[in-house]
Design a protein that fits this description.
two-stranded antiparallel ribbon; Rossmann fold; eight-stranded mixed beta sheet
């Protein structure tokens, strides 16, 4: 009997030591994490190779992007219109967010589409709901924006919201305000920036996805630059530029030549790795995400 009591006492003594050591280890790890600077924790300003994009590369990239976004809640993404990869990446990033997060996503679509998009996100993704969404002039655009990738993205956001997420999608192409510049490109960029500045002050985490011409880093920067990152510099945005010299994109080489076109280095890459290259210009932090290939995304409306 005494041996059993002694054995039981020794067991609980060892158990107590183990629990204490585990707690101390967890506390120490937490303390180290809290003591790290954002630059160290998120690997700011450090080139990174994420490995195979078709396997672990995407998950590693999402983890990194999410970390940087947590420090700089205005995320500006410059995409190649008419491709799958950027909106697929944004979808994966949103899927990782806590269900309690309030997130706003701005897309380079006319702001007049806001009500139509909002209605679609609140409805079940039936054929009737999709037909109502596509029944506008925007979805007849052939410049790569009104793509199958965009329709898939909105359908996925609708499903996430149905499962309890709080994700709002809105247009950043301002077609409702007066002219801000005689230059049509500057006028568009100033309008996009005005909408995003209002949104950035609402306390939501913010993502804006636009063409990589409007969301670009100028080097050297122009004193009168109207690019979206330059206009939002006071918000310390995180600029992400996914790109690839390989693959295909639905683009318009001219008004009469909107179709699937091959990227400059050809349809296939010899590597499946994805690489991040940091770039900072005029106080704006940016990362170029070099993907193995881009995949063309034709118009959603035939």
């Amino acid at each position: 009997m005494k041996k059993e009591i002694r054995a039981t006492r020794n067991f609980f003594l060892r158990l107590g030591i183990c629990v204490s050591l585990c707690a101390l280890t967890a506390f120490s790890a937490s303390a180290v994490s809290r003591g790290q600077s954002a630059e160290d924790r998120c690997l700011f300003n450090q080139p990174q190779v994420f490995g195979s994009w078709s396997s672990e590369g995407l998950a590693k990239a999402i983890s990194h992007i999410d970390c940087v976004w947590s420090e700089r809640p205005v995320l500006l993404i410059g995409e190649t219109h008419g491709t799958d990869e950027t909106l697929a990446l944004v979808t994966s990033l949103l899927e990782q967010q806590p269900i309690t997060s309030k997130i706003a996503v701005g897309l380079e679509v006319p702001s007049s589409e806001d009500a139509r998009i909002s209605e679609f996100l609140k409805s079940s993704p039936t054929k009737e709901a999709t037909d109502r969404l596509l029944n506008s002039d925007f979805w007849s655009y052939k410049d790569g924006r009104a793509s199958q990738a965009l329709l898939r993205f909105l359908t996925k956001i609708s499903a996430l919201n149905e499962n309890g997420h709080d994700i709002e999608v809105f247009g950043i192409e301002d077609v409702q305000s007066g002219r801000r510049s005689k230059n049509p490109i500057a006028n568009k960029e100033l309008g996009m920036s005005a909408i995003l500045k209002k949104r950035a002050g609402l306390g939501q985490k913010l993502i804006a996805v636009g063409g990589n011409f409007h969301i670009r880093i100028e080097s050297p920067p122009s004193a009168n630059s109207t690019t979206v990152p330059n206009q939002l510099r006071s918000f310390s945005p995180y600029v992400l530029l996914p790109t690839s010299s390989y693959g295909e994109a639905w683009t318009c080489l001219s008004m009469s030549d909107c179709a699937v076109h091959q990227r400059p280095q050809g349809a296939k890459s010899s590597s499946d790795d994805a690489v991040i290259k940091p770039e900072e210009e005029n106080g704006i932090y940016a990362e170029i995400l070099e993907l193995p290939v881009l995949t063309a995304s034709p118009p959603a409306k035939k």
